[in-house]
Specification:
Residues 1-75 form the D-isomer specific 2-hydroxyacid dehydrogenase NAD-binding domain. This is D-isomer specific 2-hydroxyacid dehydrogenase NAD-binding domain-containing protein. Belongs to the D-isomer specific 2-hydroxyacid dehydrogenase family. By secondary structure, this protein is of the alpha/beta class. It is 40% helix and 11% strand. The protein contains 4 helices and 3 strands. Strand 1, helix 2 (27-36) and strand 2 form a beta-alpha-beta unit. The longest helix has 20 residues, at 79-98.
């Protein structure tokens, strides 16, 4: 979805964040855009294959002075998200028991 052509049309100040699915962003194109200044920043919480293979380009790029953040697929872990999970689970159990 986010490929080289779309990145070429982006404003250089764009901060691109992916916490959806690993294949949504062409990571190589995004990394090239980041290095060239066409992309203002990149945050990635998901990768196409997890765990990533040794030498993954985004992980290797973490040692460069780039506006890059890579997290281990844990963007959902917030106090609010945990509370929502607990509440939804309790609701589902109550509804199941009353059916």
């Amino acid at each position: 979805m986010i490929n080289r052509e779309r990145l070429a049309r982006a404003k250089p100040s764009l901060l691109l964040v992916n916490c959806a699915r690993g294949g949504v962003i062409d990571e190589v194109a995004a990394l090239e855009a980041l290095r060239s200044g066409q992309l203002g920043g990149l945050g990635v919480d998901v990768l196409p294959s997890e765990p990533p293979k040794e030498g993954h380009p985004l992980l290797e790029a973490l040692s460069e002075p780039l506006n890059l953040i890579v997290t281990p697929h844990n963007a959902w872990i917030t106090p609010e998200a945990r509370q929502n999970i607990v509440s939804l689970t309790a609701t589902n159990i109550r509804e199941w028991k009353s059916a």
